[in-house]
Amino acid sequence: MKAWLDGDVLQSPHEPAIGVLDHGLVVGDGVFETVAVEQGEPFALTRHLDRLVRSAEGLGIGTPDVALLRSGVAETMAGQELEFGRVRITVTSGVGPLGSPRGSSDLTHVVVTEPCERPPAVAGIVTVPWPRNERGALAGLKTTSYAENAKMIEVARAAGASEAVMPNTQGHLCEGTGSNIMYVLDGRLVTPTLASGCLAGITRALALEWLSEEMDVEEVDAPIEVLQEASEVILVGTTRNLQAIARVDDRVLDAPGPITRQAQEIWARRQAENPDP
């Protein structure tokens, strides 16, 4: 693992580096991206950096220095043999007061890169009752305000699942704590619309683009109970890619199903063509 802060590689990722008044620490005032590393190459880095900028500007903290962050990615990857790994890019609003109002300091830019294990090919999910607010101030932004997600994923892990999936305030299926979701209903591959309040996932966007060229894929909002009717369920995310789901709450599915396998084959083929699509 290597860590970098505002242009400098740290001697150790455990080295004290960010002050106690950084607003990212004080109130979670920041944005982030997680980028998968495949065979030593960050995947879809440009798309992730573009979304980081959108999130930061949407949050109102300003525009991150993308060129500086690219150098941080390169410097933290250098010297690491990364067959598979992840890059965590974080930008906060910088030093601020002990309260919600922001200060006037420069943004804080952080990059950490580490090897990691691939998620299992098949996993389980649980649905949780706490809704994502599709009309909230942070809707559609990838911010560091993740305590709600942390609580949900711990509930999932306690139930022997790898992800928690939530509704929105209308009771419609929305997303996982760190993933988008797709499911198969009547032979069609379906995913919630962005109007549901789900994050505009990078993997989600690429999957919609690539799969729709060869499969019937739809964006539809439906009650979260649709997962109890679906013949197949897929989690979609940066390190998961397209992960087959074998259990939804107490319901067991045959996974991966035929449509999931077809989607995974298309994804693997297209992903191998270009590391920065």
Automatic annotation (TrEMBL):
<dbReference type="GO" id="GO:0016829">
    <property type="term" value="F:lyase activity"/>
</dbReference>
<dbReference type="InterPro" id="IPR043132">
    <property type="entry name" value="BCAT-like_C"/>
</dbReference>
<dbReference type="InterPro" id="IPR043131">
    <property type="entry name" value="BCAT-like_N"/>
</dbReference>
<dbReference type="InterPro" id="IPR001544">
    <property type="entry name" value="Aminotrans_IV"/>
</dbReference>
<keyword id="KW-0456">Lyase</keyword>
<comment type="similarity">
    <text>Belongs to the class-IV pyridoxal-phosphate-dependent aminotransferase family.</text>
</comment>
<dbReference type="InterPro" id="IPR050571">
    <property type="entry name" value="Class-IV_PLP-Dep_Aminotrnsfr"/>
</dbReference>
<dbReference type="Pfam" id="PF01063">
    <property type="entry name" value="Aminotran_4"/>
</dbReference>
<dbReference type="InterPro" id="IPR036038">
    <property type="entry name" value="Aminotransferase-like"/>
</dbReference>
<protein>
    <submittedName>
        <fullName>Aminodeoxychorismate lyase</fullName>
    </submittedName>
</protein>
